[in-house]
Amino acid sequence: MNMEMMTSLGNAGAAAVLGLAALGSALGTGTAGMAAVGAWKKCYAQSKTAPFILMVFIGAPLSQTIYGMILMFQMAQPVTQDMEAAFVSWPAMISAGIFGGMAMAASAWFQGKAGAAGADALAETGQGFGNYLMTIGIVETVALFVLVFIQAAL
Predict the structure, then answer these.
(1) Which of 11, 76, 105, 113 has its CA at 20 to 30 Å from residue 86's CA atom?
(2) Distance CA 102, CA 9 (A)
């Protein structure tokens, strides 16, 4: 296998982390968004004010795309700067990209699910926003750990 091919494979791993993290963000925002729309509908049906703060739950899973982008840049930089390192690291880069991206995707998706539950509960009771946000933050921590630990491993 030539150097150019190995560099390309290393960069494919960097691209995979972003693509998979973004997939998770799409699933998470979509899930939370559908629940928020349903929660707002309940509020309108009961002639209650629809809480705009539910947008926080919808947008929370987007951060995993940013983490994926940061990790993508961190992974691609050494490959493009040091062709000899690419010779050795391309399997690690692909593995890190796929498994790191999948972990970030799962974090975003389940963050959206937690946000969906929080949106429903907040619209119904008007209480507990801080608790729901803390839950989302804990789920977010998984993606942050992946970002930091994969950077350390490469």
Answers:
(1) 105
(2) 18
**Mean pLDDT in consecutive groups of 10 residues from the start of the chain, 154 residues:** 79 94 98 98 94 97 97 80 64 93 98 98 95 97 96 84
Q: In this predicted structure, what is the pLDDT of residue 124?
A: 93
pTM of the shown model: 0.89
Tokens standing for residue 116: 């969906």
In single-letter form, the type of residue at position 11 comes to: N
Best CA proximity match to 96, nearest among 15, 13, 27, 21 = 13
Question: Could you give the dihedral angle defined by the CA atoms of residues 36, 40, 43 and 47, in that order, rounded to the nearest 10 degrees?
Answer: 170
**Domains located in the chain, CATH noted:** 3-153 (1.20.120.610)
CA-nearest of 16, 10, 23, 8 to 100 is 16
- List helix spans (H) across 1-82: 3-45, 54-59, 63-81
